[in-house]
């Protein structure tokens, strides 16, 4: 049986703890307490019995129970003001409040408790102080025997904070006070959206919205800092995350990246404080993934130097636009620029859509996207422009402009290159969405692991039931997901810094990585939350366990900021183009032939001894794992090039050829991303100074790599990269790693730093 | 570009269709129509322009456009009363209503249209009648060119109705009128639960609740009929399905199966009409899967021949009990029966919990499980019994009773066997849950396929965009899921009939199948809905596409009526026991040795020629597919037996040995279920008389089988069952089958018979 406390007893826990903390009580002391408790008419008879039972010297609490009480008091007292923390009654009242047993809280009880304190001769403030002292054995809240931190706990947690613990605790300090409102299901949609706006403004007021903007406009010029806010907010409310991201990241980001000084000076400060709420109007009813084919037009009017923004038909309305439904006053609108009847492709324009009082402006029709699967705290809407006139300077003109003489000019002559350059500046969103997904996955794993450690079911005949975490099937479900989350975390951090430090450099590789990593990482999020929910059984279905909103809110992550399947094709094409570019003016055919040949050279001859090597040392080595990942990547690249080559040679046009090999593009892109993620995991381990951290990360890296090889074993076996016996050895080793890492499961999810009140829910079986 | 109609034009569609249906208009006729339209002050100038443009003889609609108009009118007119169906104005008004352009609907327009009808010399009732005539080319509602049914359409649809088209249409006729209420998101939780109860009672009043009960009690003694209702209701609202299932299936089913004549006579009629709403109180806070360890007690009181039902601690409260939160008046409570201080294990008792006015009875505390991920139309609650007294006859005494002398007796002497016999009678729930899941999966596929056919995105340079269904990645996502749904459908039907026809026979095999099939089928549902949602992109995220509730409501299907992972272990253990039983008194060790030996004999020597045979004929043959499935099953069984054998031989106790091989138990059970599903698919094809049905089902069977072999290719390659080249050939063939079956995708989902108004939503891009 687990250690646990019956609800009605909770308010008396501080009293009981203090009573037993210093050893066995005198009979007179027990009698006094019993008397005071029994005299109190507001306490129910059953409760009195329970309290008295726990004061029986024949029945003292075990050391484990005492440690548990102490810890429980500490955790709950952490929610009190310092002045209340050392008062028996206040803490008891807090515990009562947490468990809905507040009938106990009254003046009579207050008096009883104070009398008891005095009688026991304990200066209560002093005695209770010991509860709050740092004690490694009891400082984490854990219901089962395992109450200790591990050597790696602190540095590992710090590692996942990516250098910004301060930013994270600022976010926590802003959102913690709202936790009840955040977790309420009572709001209607409109009220909820207003609340989300309010919280968003609080973050802005604390200077947490504009961190990515240049210091001259109130920011700190740091994308990683902005991402740290994004990650932390995601632990609380994903509608807030997305509203925050739409306004500061997409809208503000478009002004910063696509606009020039005139726009920065005029808008960035107000965007940073949210004085000017905005939205990002790209997607249309009939054009989502195919941005190039958007139908909204922006026709230049030389007479008065304006643009007319127009929605040609109902199918061309902007849709799913976050922040448009209720709050945005300005939209970055993507439209086909037409100057003197000539089309210049997609450009972005700032279009005011509401006045500062929130009234919709003339010739603009705003709709609401209605009830959604999730993110119902975000006001997604539709926008219809009926020949809306905007001044010339509202064109975000960094990559294309209309001059004073009404002539179009651009620093980038190729319209296709211009298009991709513009979209490329918006890669920040693709970096941030999966980071929000990671937070959701971490929260899900935190809940599932704490649940699995606490929940007991079945057991050997005649013995105690077992923790479900002891079941191999359960370990096999959860442990690889924990390893994945670490793997993607390091990859995101790497990419974020790379992007942040090399904004002006050739960004094609960053974009390709961002697109592919976003796809694999968000799919991992969806899978993780699903498996975690199932692993918590019926309790996982209750909204209090968060899986409800975690699932519903993140479900769209695989779609927005680029549909995952489309993104992986982008990644694959970009990989092919990368080779093409490296060799100047080669055409597609030559490039494909070239890739086939170099990849063949790189693909080492398979050594039958290695193919059959089933030793643990070999399987756990970086060399084997990297070689396996690289082999899959290069082989896919080569066969893809060969397939395309053959089709084009046979007269197929390149569009159809690429369509035909679509599934292989996805495979190749996935193999590429997998390899980068593993490499980054290894580099991260090398960078660690603490041996305990290195050790646990190495186990996680091994599990990440071998589990993925196991998942792709069909491919490896098809291509004779591993023998059947080696494949079986890998299956076995994965199970072994899962079992070993299970012992670290609590400490690993503790490193995710999920707010404690959430964890507590996982442990509450009413 | 797809054929489509601008919203404001919709009300004029009947007019336009009639104007063009008989050929080119005379100039005078056009002028008259233009004049009448222009004179009408209630029609907006833009709309007038559009209408006139469509009447221009230089710009006649193409045959395809005309067919589309006709079809569109027909579909919408189907919602009208017969008398309104042949009136231009009424149909136009209906179209206007569907598209929210109702400002058009007024007397002035009515007059204009009637004048136009008269002038054109068309007797409108006659002309419109042609719209409703059966025309194979236009009789299905389809937005793209493909407007035809296929030869197999009608018989295939009939096949999936499993012989009960009448029951299904009765359900539809009851629920269709509620469709707006069902699909509303405006209700608070309490209101919603009341509505669901109301619909449930409507089904009961129509005689659709008690179909499984014996005719003597108002039913028809047919489990398959009951399942048909269940399946059909699931297309509308899964909360209703579950509430219906809890009351009629679990509560009523427990009275029928565990009770005797006294209970049947007293309760079954009232249960059938829902005059006595009930619930099924098995799960407790601390015991879900481990039913045997339930803590609630039922202690016999010889003095007054009663039982005292008691909840020993807060952790032993009944929880997640559907119908308990608000509506049930009686509960079937599972509790440890104690007679004269002797425990006799779990038995079921009828405990009144509310009076007929809905007031909770004394000594019973009912809680609410709060907000859930889904199924929020079901009132799940907790039950706490504080020494509740019930008469002796409230024990459901079919398998265990207390006689007049206060002595326990049972027709089954082994308490373990008694326990499993009691649970076995409740297998109906495990048959029905996955059937509800299948309906959800069908609805999801219907939406995804219609969306994919209509949605266009990207395309060859300078050409029209392509339907996303033309993308190989999309085909690879959706088509295997369609094949799976057919496969599971036939398996469920088979099992349902088997169960229904052999209730009294040894039911172990049915139970093992039901448990395992429930697991694989509900996981398939979860996966199907997820992939369908993603395949519909942003639109899939809007609640109007149903994925929202489909996902949230079905998510618990993998947990309730048995956690899937636990169920598969049951299936596996039952398979092992099956062999044990066949040979009398063999002990576990001997059995395991025996299984190892017979399985080895059965496993044919692998023929290298077959292992490498990549011919299409071979891969598409039943023989190869069945052999592949059987090989995996028997090999898993043998290695499992060998593993267990070895562990037990080495002194491990059998509990630990089974724990160690948990993952292998799951694999073995899955392989067993997969083989049965494939066999049943083949039998179903053999039973068909219509060649076109045979043909399309054979393609689906091939896709089901080969896709599953592809999914398990790692295993097959590890065990040298197929060569690498054969595996690659299978991958290729799966892609080919997906591409071929894509051509049937619309007709295949049409066979699912999803209410048309749902399908329409998939085609609406605002």
Automatic annotation (TrEMBL), chains A, B:
Q: Does this UniProt record's set of keywords contain Oxidoreductase?
A: yes
Q: Where in the cell is it found?
A: Peroxisome
The processes (GO biological process) annotated in the record are: fatty acid beta-oxidation using acyl-CoA oxidase; lipid homeostasis
Q: In terms of domain of life, where is this protein from?
A: Bacteria
Please tell me which top-level EC class this enzyme sits in. oxidoreductase
Alphabetically, the GO molecular function entries are: acyl-CoA oxidase activity; FAD binding; fatty acid binding
Tell me where in this chain the Acyl-CoA oxidase/dehydrogenase middle domain is found: 279-388
UniProtKB keywords: FAD, Fatty acid metabolism, Flavoprotein, Lipid metabolism, Oxidoreductase, Peroxisome
Q: Could you say which protein family the record assigns here?
A: Belongs to the acyl-CoA oxidase family.
Descriptive protein name: acyl-CoA oxidase
């Amino acid at each position: 049986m687990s250690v646990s406390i019956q609800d009605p007893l909770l308010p008396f826990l501080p009293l009981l703890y203090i009573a037993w903390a210093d050893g066995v009580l005198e009979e007179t002391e027990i009698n006094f307490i019993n008397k005071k408790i029994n005299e109190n008419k507001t306490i129910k008879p059953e409760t009195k019995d329970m309290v008295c039972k726990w004061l029986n010297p024949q029945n003292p609490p075990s050391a484990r129970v005492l440690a548990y009480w102490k810890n429980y008091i500490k955790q709950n007292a952490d929610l009190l003001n310092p002045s209340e923390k050392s008062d028996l009654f206040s803490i008891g009242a807090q515990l009562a409040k947490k468990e809905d047993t507040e009938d106990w809280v009254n003046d009579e009880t207050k008096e009883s408790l104070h009398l008891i304190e005095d009688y026991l001769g304990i200066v209560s403030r002093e005695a209770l102080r010991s509860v709050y002292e740092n004690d490694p054995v009891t400082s984490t809240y854990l219901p089962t025997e395992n109450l200790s931190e591990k050597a790696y706990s602190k540095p590992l947690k710090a590692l996942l904070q990516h250098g910004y613990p301060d930013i994270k605790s600022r976010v926590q300090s802003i959102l913690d006070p709202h936790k009840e409102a955040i977790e309420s299901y009572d709001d209607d949609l409109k009220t909820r959206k207003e609340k989300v706006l309010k919280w968003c403004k609080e973050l802005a007021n604390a200077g947490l919205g504009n961190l990515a903007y240049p210091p001259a406009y109130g920011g700190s010029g740091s994308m990683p800092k902005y991402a740290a806010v994004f990650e932390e907010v995601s632990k609380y409310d994903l509608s807030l995350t997305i509203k925050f991201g739409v306004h500061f990241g997409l809208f503000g980001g478009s002004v910063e990246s696509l606009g020039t000084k005139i726009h920065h000076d005029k808008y960035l400060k107000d965007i940073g404080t949210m004085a000017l709420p905005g939205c990002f109007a790209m997607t249309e009813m009939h054009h989502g993934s195919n941005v190039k084919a958007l139908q909204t037009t922006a026709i230049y009017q030389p007479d008065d130097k304006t643009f007319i923004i127009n929605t040609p038909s109902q199918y061309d309305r902007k849709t799913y636009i976050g922040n448009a439904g209720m709050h945005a006053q300005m939209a970055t609108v993507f439209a086909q620029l037409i100057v003197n009847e000539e089309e210049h492709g997609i450009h972005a324009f700032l279009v005011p859509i509401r006045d500062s009082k929130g009234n919709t402006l003339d010739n603009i029709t705003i709709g609401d996207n209605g009830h959604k699967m999730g993110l119902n705290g975000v006001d997604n809407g539709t926008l219809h422009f009926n020949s809306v006139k905007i001044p010339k300077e509202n064109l975000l003109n960094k990559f294309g402009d209309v001059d004073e003489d009404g002539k179009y000019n651009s620093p980038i002559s190729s319209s296709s290159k211009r298009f991709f350059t513009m979209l490329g500046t918006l890669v920040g969103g693709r970096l941030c969405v999966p980071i929000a997904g990671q937070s959701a996955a971490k929260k899900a794993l935190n809940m599932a692991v704490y649940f699995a450690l606490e929940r007991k079911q079945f057991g050997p005949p005649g013995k105690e039931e077992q923790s479900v975490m002891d079941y191999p099937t359960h370990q096999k479900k959860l442990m690889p997901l924990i390893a994945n989350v670490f793997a993607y975390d390091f990859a995101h951090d790497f990419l974020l810094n790379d992007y942040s430090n090399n904004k002006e450099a050739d960004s094609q590789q960053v974009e390709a990585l961002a697109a592919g990593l976003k796809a694999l990482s968000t799919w991992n999020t969806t899978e993780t939350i699903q498996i975690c929910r199932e692993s918590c059984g019926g309790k996982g279905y209750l909204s209090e366990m968060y899986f409800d909103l975690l699932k519903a809110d993140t479900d769209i992550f695989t779609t927005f900021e680029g549909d995952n399947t489309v993104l992986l094709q982008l990644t694959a094409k970009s990989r092919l183009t990368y080779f093409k570019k490296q060799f100047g003016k080669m055409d597609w055919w030559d490039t494909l032939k070239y890739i086939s040949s170099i990849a063949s050279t790189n693909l080492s001859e398979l050594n039958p001894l290695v193919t059959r090597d089933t030793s643990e040392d070999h399987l756990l080595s970086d060399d084997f794992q990297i070689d396996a990942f690289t082999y899959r990547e290069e082989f896919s690249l080569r066969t893809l090039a060969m397939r395309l080559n053959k089709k084009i040679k046979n007269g197929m046009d390149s569009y159809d050829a690429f369509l035909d090999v679509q599934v292989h593009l996805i495979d190749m892109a996935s193999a590429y991303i997998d390899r980068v993620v593993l490499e980054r995991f290894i580099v991260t381990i090398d960078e660690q100074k603490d041996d305990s951290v290195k050790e646990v990360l190495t186990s996680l890296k091994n599990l990440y790599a071998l589990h993925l090889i196991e998942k792709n074993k069909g491919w490896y076996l098809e291509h004779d990269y591993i023998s059947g016996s080696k494949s079986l050895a890998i299956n076995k080793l994965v199970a072994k790693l899962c079992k070993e890492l299970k012992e670290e499961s609590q400490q690993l999810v503790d490193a995710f730093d999920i707010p404690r009140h959430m964890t507590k829910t996982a442990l509450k079986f009413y």
